[in-house]
Design a protein that fits this description.
The protein is of the alpha/beta class and 257 residues long. It has helices spanning 2-22, 35-49, 60-68, 81-89, 126-129, 144-155, 159-162, 172-180, 191-196, 229-236, 239-247, and strands spanning 26-31, 53-58, 75-77, 99-103, 106-111, 135-138, 166-169, 186-190, 200-205, 215-220, 251-252.
Length: 257
């Protein structure tokens, strides 16, 4: 029995340095559309380094505001340049660390069993296809996906016909859920969101020329003192993370901001 206690005590002692080396988790605030992909990337990072990660996902607007108000984030991944610019203007990120990480596409979705057929093109009959329902999209006044959607619909000449028939959401994932649950007959989300939800289908892809480029910038926050922040930023740009992002439908983009 004494020998067994000695072995167990020795094992516990061996475990303590590993826990100590892990340290506090690196905290990442990120756009809701990155949830599955970034979680998978984070698992790869932890498997490789043993370092823990903590994620907070939501609308880029909400994430940026929380960081500006002092939320303890080490990295910020936005779904557009504007909210990263806004946070940079507040002194919230280290400008030298800023990179353009990913790209995406904007799509029109419907519930998986819907019979609707539309071709996304100038003047297309979106309002008529809604019937008595509303168009689900992220808040077009603040959330990147909603702003991209409004820009695309305006460029295609159909915004005025649907602007009074919106079902605005706090994030693109909430808009996706509205369509998946059948609460809206149509919605506009990112291609990666549609890919992540089996209860919806893509019925149209918006021309890239109809809206600003969908770019996901990343930067280390000014308040971060975590020794692993720079390492995870490098990992996000490396081949292992890039392969995971591609698997989830994201495209690559230029690495400098």
């Amino acid at each position: 029995m004494q020998n067994r206690r000695t072995v167990l005590a020795g094992a516990a002692t061996l475990l303590l340095p590993a826990v100590a080396r892990a340290g506090p988790p690196l905290t990442v605030f990120a756009a809701a559309s990155l949830q599955e992909a970034l979680t998978a990337v984070g698992a790869g990072w932890t498997a490789k380094t043993g370092a823990p990660l903590r994620f907070s996902f939501g609308a880029s607007s909400a994430m940026a505001r929380q960081i500006a108000q002092g939320a303890p984030a080490d990295l910020f991944l936005s779904a557009d340049e504007e909210w990263m610019d806004w946070l940079a203007g507040k002194g919230g990120v280290v400008t030298a660390t800023r990179r353009r990480l990913l790209s995406n596409r904007l799509v029109l979705i419907a519930p998986i069993r819907a019979k609707v057929a539309l071709t996304v093109a100038p003047g297309f009959p979106l309002a008529g296809a809604l019937g008595d329902g509303r168009l689900a999209l992220a808040d077009p006044t603040a959330v990147p996906a909603g702003k991209y959607a409004r820009a695309a619909l305006t460029a295609l000449g159909v915004w005025k016909s649907v602007s009074g028939r919106l079902l605005p959401a706090e994030s693109v994932r909430t808009a996706l859920a509205y369509v998946a649950r059948g609460e809206a007959p149509l919605g506009i989300v990112y291609a990666t969101d549609a890919k992540a939800e089996p209860k919806v289908k893509v019925i149209g892809v918006f021309p890239a020329s109809s809206h600003p480029p969908i770019v996901y910038p990343v930067a280390v926050t000014s308040a971060s003192r975590h020794s692993g922040a720079a390492g995870f930023l490098d990992f996000l740009q490396g081949p292992q993370a890039s392969a995971i992002f591609r698997r989830y439908g994201f495209g690559a983009t230029a690495r400098s901001a």
